[in-house]
């Protein structure tokens, strides 16, 4: 049993793998596992004699540039059709440079003439772990798509160390642009052409994905997204600057701008220009990100942004409890709140 794994920076190998997958989409479910094992996993005994240069909550860095992720590589599952709910899923490739894998979820269609809201989902994992193709996030996004009756696109963005930050932001932006390419119902993905309402687009993410959600939606406000109306953004227990995680983020982003980097600590300008009409933020009381989540909403309301912001406090709960314990009552309540947020006209 592998309890952790080591990789070294391998952007050229990662680019080769993505290019190969672009021509072999049936292999997409194995993408994250391939990335995780870009170099063979090794037991802790192989690194016990190495000298540690940096120690972070999610990984450690040795002097030879080896990065050891503290959690085992994620196990992925293929897309599938649910015979009970009628929800279908499939994988696709966003043809950016490098290509970005996504998983698409389509709820049961009862009225072919009625188009569905579109949700871009951005998974969590500390910018260095997990996948849109993991069982955890497959099931989570499927649940939201079913409850909200929304067409969901879950992006499998590049992870540190194979692809350092800002890859996560650029890949997620590429996925949103790809969604926007279907504005005239003539894009490359039939499900989006036939069933997606691009006047009702939402962006949602948890933890690291919540942070990425902010940056992506802020970019919409600054640069625009022709043919698309981003109605709302959902950030569940989002990471922002102001905690012990700051230096870990800075290490994962070699081209950072220090502790005031606006991707980590949003500026007033970025908040004011947020490119959506409403925002829903969840903050968990026992989460070390509790205060920064609350502060984000406070600063957003003071920024001069014209939209509406709602803060939901998950009292007595831990970070991303809905991801790790999705069948608990509190998790069901959180997911239903997201679904209602998407369904509201």
Question: Can you walk me through this structure?
Answer:
It comes from Stylosanthes scabra. It holds the Pfam family Abhydrolase_3. This is Alpha/beta hydrolase fold-3 domain-containing protein. Belongs to the 'GDXG' lipolytic enzyme family. This protein has 345 residues and is of the alpha/beta class. Helices cover 32% and strands 21% of the residues. It has helices at 11-22, 31-36, 135-148, 167-180, 190-195, 208-223, 246-252, 268-272, 290-302, 321-324, 329-343, and strands at residues 5-7, 52-55, 59-62, 67-69, 88-94, 100-106, 116-122, 151-155, 196-206, 230-236, 278-284, 308-314. The strands form 2 sheets. An 8-stranded mixed β-sheet has the order 5-6-8-7-9-10-11-12, with helices on both faces. A 4-stranded antiparallel β-sheet has the order 1-4-3-2, with no helix packed on it. β9, α6 (208-223) and β10 (230-236) form a beta-alpha-beta unit. α3 (135-148) packs across α11 (329-343) and α4 (167-180) crosses α6 (208-223). The relative contact order is 0.11.
Attribute tags:
11 helices, 32% helix, 8-stranded mixed β-sheet, Rossmann fold, 2 domains, 12 strands, 4-stranded antiparallel β-sheet, alpha/beta, single chain
Describe the secondary structure blueprint for this structure:
Elements: E1 5-7, H1 11-22, H2 31-36, E2 52-55, E3 59-62, E4 67-69, E5 88-94, E6 100-106, E7 116-122, H3 135-148, E8 151-155, H4 167-180, H5 190-195, E9 196-206, H6 208-223, E10 230-236, H7 246-252, H8 268-272, E11 278-284, H9 290-302, E12 308-314, H10 321-324, H11 329-343
Parallel strand pairs: 7-8, 7-9, 9-10, 10-11, 11-12
Antiparallel strand pairs: 1-4, 2-3, 3-4, 5-6, 6-8
């Amino acid at each position: 049993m592998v309890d952790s794994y080591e990789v070294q920076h391998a952007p050229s190998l990662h680019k080769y793998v993505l290019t190969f997958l672009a021509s072999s989409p049936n292999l997409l479910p194995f993408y994250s596992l391939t990335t995780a094992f870009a170099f063979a996993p090794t037991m802790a005994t192989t690194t016990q004699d190495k000298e540690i240069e940096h120690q972070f909550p999610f990984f450690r860095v040795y002097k030879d540039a080896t990065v050891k992720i503290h959690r085992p590589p994620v196990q992925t599952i293929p897309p599938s059709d649910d015979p009970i709910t009628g929800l279908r899923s499939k994988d696709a490739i966003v043809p950016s440079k490098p290509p970005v894998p996504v998983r698409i979820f389509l709820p049961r269609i009862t009225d072919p003439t009625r188009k569905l809201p579109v949700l871009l989902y951005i998974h969590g994992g500390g910018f260095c772990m997990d996948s849109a193709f993991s069982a955890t996030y497959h099931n989570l996004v499927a649940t939201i798509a079913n409850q909200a009756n929304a067409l969901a696109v879950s992006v499998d963005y590049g992870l540190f160390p194979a692809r350092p930050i800002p890859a996560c932001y650029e890949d997620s932006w590429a996925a949103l642009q790809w969604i926007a390419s279907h504005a005239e119902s003539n894009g490359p993905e039939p499900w989006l052409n036939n069933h997606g309402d691009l006047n009702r687009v939402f962006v949602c993410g948890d933890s690291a994905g919540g942070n990425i959600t902010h940056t992506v939606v802020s970019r919409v406000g600054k640069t625009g997204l022709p043919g698309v109306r981003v109605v709302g953004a959902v950030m569940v227990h989002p990471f922002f600057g102001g905690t012990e995680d700051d230096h870990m983020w800075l290490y994962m982003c070699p081209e950072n701008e220090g502790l005031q980097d606006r991707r980590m600590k949003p500026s007033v300008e970025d908040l004011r220009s947020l490119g959506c009409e409403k925002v829903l933020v969840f903050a968990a009381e026992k989460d070390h990100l509790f205060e920064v989540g609350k502060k984000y909403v406070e600063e957003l309301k003071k920024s001069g942004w014209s939209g509406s912001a709602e803060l939901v406090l998950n009292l007595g709960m831990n970070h991303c409890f809905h991801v790790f314990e999705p069948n608990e009552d509190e998790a069901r309540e959180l997911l239903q709140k997201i679904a209602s947020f998407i369904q509201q006209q």
